[in-house]
Amino acid sequence: MTRGVILYGPPAAGKDTVDAALRALSDDYVHFARIKVGEGRREGYRITTSAALQELRERGGVVWENSRYGATYAVDRPGLIDALGHGVPVLHLGQVEAVDAVATAVSGARWVVVSLWCPEDVAVDRLRQRGSADVAERLEAWRATPELGEADLRFDTSMVEPRDAARRIDAHVRKACTLADSFPPDSPRG
């Protein structure tokens, strides 16, 4: 069974940190690099051009995209399929609609959805500590990120250590995989 992890939350909620803790816990976990068109941070993204992204859109390969911080970010179906075939991809999202789009993008994939959050003052401290030049804009995005209605797990990252969150996520991923293997594919739980 193919499986992945969606880390949902506002900026500075701990998506990068929990992702790194999952990858340190097991080589099964791989960071899913979203596509990015624009300036700013390049690490953790697949940088491309506007023309290449448009071509992907025209082929129906874009599952979700959004624009923020002067850049466009996209999740692509070919990238998801490839990542699901090579491990347990860990995908960072901050929009409720994106979670739904990704969760239904690849037939047979099971996504464990994890909602991450921290208090605003903690987010501000984290943004400053990592040297973000656009703290005000990221704080605006933090405030605009709605709570996720349904999630398999929820963590206030100011109250739980990243490796503890990673262990609980890993246990949930393994349990979800075992449960799904126990039911036929057309079963509601499969």
TrEMBL record:
It is an enzyme of class 2 (transferase). Signal peptide: none annotated. Keywords: Kinase, Transferase. The keyword Transferase applies. Pfam families: CPT. It comes from the Bacteria. GO terms for molecular function: GMP kinase activity. Its EC number is 2.7.4.8. This is Guanylate kinase.
